[in-house]
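tool=predict chain=A
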Amino acid sequence: MRRILNTAGSLFHRLLNNSRFTFSLAVIALQVIVPVLLWRIVSIHGVTGIIDLKGILAVVVAATVGWICVRNSVRTSPFRSQYWWGLALLVLFTASTPFLIFAWIESYLVVAALLWVLFCASIVFSLWSPAFQSAMKRRVAVLTNAVTALLFFGLLSIHGVTGEGRTSFEWRIHRLPNNLIPDGDSASAGTLKPEQTEPDNETSGAIVWPGHAGYSDTVLTEQRNLPDNWWSELETVWTVPVGPGWSGMAATETHVFTLEQLNNCDTLTSRDINDGHQLWTATVNVEPYKSPYGGDGPRATPAVFDFTAEDGSIYRRVVAAGPRDNVICVRAADGTVIWQTDLTELSTGEPLHHGLSASPLIVNTMVIVSPSASHGPGLCALSQSDGRLIWKAESSWKASYSSPIHTQLCGVHQILFHAGPGILSLDIESGKTLWSFEWTNEHQTNASLPVVVNAEQGLVAVSTGYGTGTVLLKTIVNSSGKWSVSEVWKSKALKTKFSSLSRFDRMLVGLDDGILSAVDLETGERLWKKGRYRHGQSLRVGNQLIVLSESGELVVVAPEQTSPAELANLPVLTGKCWSAPILSEDSILIRNDEQMTRLRIAGGRLHPETDTLKHKD
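tool=predict ok
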């Protein structure tokens, strides 16, 4: 044993005295490990607002090891002068890395490119300059790497991060400038004057998709049955460019509504569902929401609804919430603004770093919205008629990414909301807390909707990502109206980060860190895990699950108790897809932050009156 230890010690000492080895180790530590760790720290902070202390400690350790190796290699190098020049470049790059990461926006392109040129040059000079006896060869090597770096950053730009937190790049010539409206002849909305009246609903048809996930992924789609092999004749009706943003869509028989960043404003838009032509736009936020991590543009999905006036007249309206906490209600026919409310005046604390992400919910005569306030409240109720405040949530729990839903548990109507700290149930009329249960992750970033497993028995499933998983809750209300909540089971086998769960018979199905998975509804044990679709979105339709993968494939899956059957995998969009697909009368509508497309289902027609699909004669 002593001989082994002596041999190992001798080898280690020899390596430390080898200038090339120690300097190579220094370059790996300082130019690979440290930048990667710094990017991870900044990404976590940008997405969650949390400072990763463990990551900072790892950076300190890696940097310390790197600089010890640098000092040792320079001290023992026979090419000391060359190494000192390399060391100077290495110091410059290491010191500039945090600036490069934090300051990456288009106007810093030249600075960023120059810094990375120095980075590439320092690697060549530090590692291989002793081997280049000719000064000309050294200059050629440095120049070659400099040109490569300039071309790389001249043609590519950072396009936020993926669901896994990896940096995403795109060609600079690929993106449609967000200061242009794709359809130049589209109309802009104005403000409703007192003497103006709202038109009737004849021009927009029936509402086929009212808002985010249809307000619940089971309300509109669980009872629908699509034709056999419907995907085999799926027809692309149109594809149009859209502005940046991750909002979903709401739709009537003739119109589709969404939020985009156009003309450097966060904007509500209406498009003709027949050809995708933009009909009108209404500005939600004048100051556009920018994020180098999650991406620019709005996050919340608009809601379309029929408003009943005091005289009994019914008017079609659309309500939208911008990422900077401004809520507008417009006339569905032309986008004329009826009212707007600034939620920052109703909440306390600084706005959340990710902006307002929760979609509005229409309940009775109210619009339920979610202020992005660090000190709460997580929900507010506004009047549909004029946007005035009706109530603020009694709880101070702050919002996260998830949206509120209206449901019924144990015979009691209520609003369920996956807030930052956990699941929250509120009384519809007053906003008082009925019950709550802490279920979150270390970053308090919850995006999944709660799933009501059994309304009569008060069973609710709640899921989140970042290592936490899914919990099945049992809620009970006594004769005096007091609620109690208990945990039936919890499982780390299903951790939904961006998307929501769907129930199929005796199982829950969802994307577990990007891989389609199912757990037993009775025990929470994993049944299967198969299908790497990354952090996309899913939608249950009858006994099938439609998955839109993060990379833009439309996947049709038939989940069974023993395994999933992938029925189709169709490339639909390119780029990153984080917005959920929706169903119109006879079509599937899909969008990302660059394009929107309508795919017609051959041989069938979805009727909102009966909520079923009937074949054409």
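The longest strand covers residues 469-477. The CA atoms of residues 544 and 558 lie 5 Å apart.
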